[in-house]
Amino acid sequence: MTFRMTDFDESGIEDRAGTQTRIGDYGLLGDTRTAALVSGDGSLDWLCVPRFDGDPVFGRLVGGAPAGRFRLGPEGHATVVRRRYRTHTATLETTWDLGNTRLTLSEAMIAEVAGRLLPATVLVRRLSVEGETARAVVEFDPRLGERHRPPKVRRGPDLVCEWGSLALSLACDSGTPIPPGRPTSILVTPRHPVTVVLTVAHREPLIHLPPAAAWELVTEDEARWRAWTAEIAHDLPCREAVVRSLLTLRLLTYSPSGAPIAAPTTSLPEWPGGVRNWDYRYAWPRDASIGVAAFLGAGKVDEARGFLGWLLHASRLQRPRLPVLFTLDGRHAPAERTLPGWPGFAGSVPVRLGNDAADQHQLDGYGWVVDAAWTFVRSGRPLNSETWRMVRGFADHVCARWRDPDAGIWEIRGDADHHVHSKMMAWLALDRALRIAETHRLSSRRRRRWLAARDDLADEVLARGFDRIGNRYTRTYGSRDIDAALLVLPVLGMEDPDSHRVRGTIDAIRSELSAGGPLLYRYPPGQDGLPGVEGAFLPCSFWLVQALAFTGRRTEAGELFETLLRRAGPLGLLPEEVDPGTGAYLGNYPQALTHAAVVQAALALRAHGGSG
Predict the structure, then answer these.
(1) Could you tell me the maximum CA-CA distance found in the chain, to the nearest angstrom?
(2) Banded model confidence at residue 398, pLDDT cuts 50, 70, 90
(3) What's the CA gap between 52 and 282, in Å, rounded?
(4) Rounded distance, CA 161 to CA 153, Å?
(5) What percent of the chain has pLDDT over 90?
(6) pLDDT tens digit sequence for 181-225
(7) What is the pLDDT of residues 363-372, one digit of tens each?
(8) Nearest to 253 by CA among 228, 272, 230, 234
(9) How far is the C-alpha of 390 from the C-alpha of 375, rounded, in Å?
């Protein structure tokens, strides 16, 4: 089989013909509880159950062949001729040219039925042909968790695989029995597609869905997504790309709690063969806060309210401290550990579960969260008493701790420092809390304390965080290094966007952190204490679009936006990082922060007259 969607030279997972599957070759399927990654040869190589942060039941992506996969595709030589999502839906289509016929795999997870979440994950995969009869293959090899445990298998109307309280069932209308663990050949004839249905049950009875009925649910699901996307603002630049980003953000939201996950994967490397492999299957308040503004600006109020509600729920036990990240139900993330024997993606080890960044102090998070609350208020929606109490507590905490060093936005695994971006975001927390207080009750004593701290912050940042010789704000107090996170400066209101300091900072970032073309490093390479290197950080490039729009460089911003969007490929999905030399995708994927930054950039272009 040959499969080449890009010209990128990135080692990855090898398929049966020896072709490498790259990170960017994967499509996303999701039901807002969990998500699957499917390669261009129809191999489902990643699915955690019963939710995003559960054990993988198909883990080949980072666990190799022993971790299992679920492949459905052509049996012999084939070439991918088209890969896409059906317009404004979450249904993925892959079409292969078999010489005398074309074989298409259409697949989706069902999120809702009649406006209600299904009690279990349902994945529907359908093969159809145009031309002559084609021979296809089904390889269903589930292996659960860290030790790749094989299931207990029983047969009835469906194939059922069990691990105690967890069960999978597989139904297929091909008429050919499908044994687990080895490839099975099936025939697909014109006008008679083959449909395969996978259902997952955890501590619940299995749902039996006949394949024909399951495919009708896919059709209903597509209508629901099209209705959802039709409500997205129609005046957004590059609207189709923005719609795909918003739909991806929705798929990466855990519906039972409203938690937004950073990515559905763990340990996809920030550099192939390196050790920068982290577990992103958790919820960062920063990402949720950016999502509030993104959804509100696009006209999706319910989603914005859901993110704010999750922040309220998740933070309740640890206020006024705001942890860096939470589990999907608002608990402390588990301690980091590695999986021995797991080969990792492209030989990148270790494979990690858990995330030790949860124990860091990151001052910037308070600014993101309080700004999200202000965005909600500014849209004409007052905060309820509990949410306003949360915001007040965060502002008080910033007053008490803003002079302390922190780990910074990039979660450096080293000594804390006085990060200028963190101080600016602390200023933002107090400024936005004061703005909210104009329409919400606040004692005069508290107001005076916040005002004094906000002014002291601004004075200190200018005195200790600005390099007058270089005419730019710096990464940390007393350094001359630059930080791409400072691209948010024009948005904050701490400085006039036309200020020489703001423009000087933007220009310094573009010059000193350039990774070539529109790409940026987030800080000077080699400055994080870890061995090896990492790629260019895509959200920073979209923040550059936003910064250029805010500082009046509208045409340049619009052109940069379109250039960056072309990196998304036919599926419209984006990673956290890219290899500056090859353009290959790096890091956990698809990345919620990148897609939220796409929406932020589009909103800035709309607000400031940028083309797109």
Answers:
(1) 79
(2) very high
(3) 8
(4) 5
(5) 89
(6) 999 999 999 999 999 999 999 988 888 889 999 999 999 999 999
(7) 999 999 999 9
(8) 228
(9) 15
The answer to whether residue 19 scores a pLDDT higher than 80 is no
Q: How far is CA 362 from the centre of its chain?
A: 20
pLDDT single digits (tens) 465-486: 999 999 999 999 999 999 999 9
Tell me the C-alpha distance between 177 and 188, whole Å.
15
Give which of 191, 182, 22, 218 is closest to 107, Cα–Cα.
218
Q: How far apart are CA 384 and CA 612, in angstroms?
A: 37
- Mean pLDDT, range 137-165, rounded to an integer: 95
Q: How many CB atoms lie within 10 A of CB 4?
A: 13
pLDDT of residue 59: 98
Read out DSSP for 90-129? Answer: S-EEEEEE-SSEEEEEEEEE--EETTEE-SS-EEEEEEEE
Contacts with 240 (C-beta within 8 Å, 6 or more apart), sequence order: 572
Mean pLDDT along residues 289-307: 95
Using a 10 angstrom Cβ sphere, with 0-12 exposed, 13-18 middle and 19 or more buried, the burial of residue 576 is buried
Q: Which of 365, 374, 362 is nearest to 304 (CA)?
A: 374
Handedness of CA 431, 434, 438, 439 (dihedral sign): positive
Whether the pLDDT of residue 414 is over 90: the answer is no
Q: Which amino acid is at 392?
A: R
pLDDT digits (tens, 9 = 90+) for 66-109: 999 999 999 988 999 999 999 999 999 999 999 989 999 999 99
Of 319, 206, 330, 334, the residue nearest 266 (C-alpha):
334
pLDDT at 603: 98
How far is it, in rounded angstroms, from Cα 473 to Cα 479? 10
Q: For 372-413, what is the HEC assignment?
A: HHHHHHHCCCCCCHHHHHHHHHHHHHHHHHCCCCECCCCCCC
Residues 6+ apart with CB under 8 A from 328: 51, 52, 53, 254, 256, 257, 259, 261, 282, 283
Closest CA to 92 of 138, 39, 137, 47: 39
By C-alpha distance, which of 42, 112, 49 is closest to 83?
42
Which sign does the torsion angle of CA 305, 231, 89, 114 carry?
A: positive
Token pair 């070759």: residue: 25
How confident is the model at residue 14, as a pLDDT? Answer: 59
**Could you tell me the two tokens for 430?**
């107090």
Residue 460: pLDDT band by 50, 70, 90 thresholds? very high
Given this model, what pLDDT does residue 9 score? 36
Beta-carbon contacts of 566 under 8 Å, excluding residues fewer than 6 positions away, are none
> Other C-beta atoms within 10 Å of 497: how many?
18
Tell whether omega for the bond before 524 is within 30 degrees of 0, i.e. cis. no
Nearest C-alpha neighbor of 372 from the set 423, 464, 318, 310: 310
Give the span between the Cα atoms of 285 and 540, in whole angstroms: 18
pLDDT at site 611: 43
CA distances from 559 to 317, 504, 508, 518, 605 (A): 45, 21, 20, 10, 11
